[in-house]
Amino acid sequence: MNLVDVLANRNDYTKSASDASRQLAFAGIAAIWLLRVGVDAPKVPDDLVPALGFFALSLALDLLHYVIASLVWTGILWWKEYKKVRRNKQFLISGWLNAPAYALFFLKVGSVLFGYLLVIVYLIRTWGLEKFLAF
User: Fold this and answer.
1) Residue 10: strand, helix, or coil
2) Which of 22, 99, 105, 106 is least surrounded by CB atoms within 10 angstroms?
3) What whole-number distance in Å separates Cα of residue 1 and Cα of residue 5?
4) Is residue 117's pLDDT more than 70?
């Protein structure tokens, strides 16, 4: 295995994780919609509003992740074109240029996971399952 293989694997897994977190955020929003309470004017339970916020935050971070990463890579492209670097010439870039994209990646995945944790806690309390989970 070489660095090209490592980078390809990393790219595959982060793309899959991004796709999964996006789908899970939408599924979380749908689940909260199904858990609405009330007859005449159903509303989202107050305990689920933070979870809904984390799912929405994850989707916003997802968009920001791709916008920031594309701006960084476009900036690198423009800079290298300005410096008249040939298209097939190898060059190194600082790993710090990817730091904002990595931070946004971990924040969006963490946001979805925390949203689901809040939904699970709500369901445990609502269904009275605390007594079965006591240690």
Assistant:
1) helix
2) 99
3) 6
4) yes
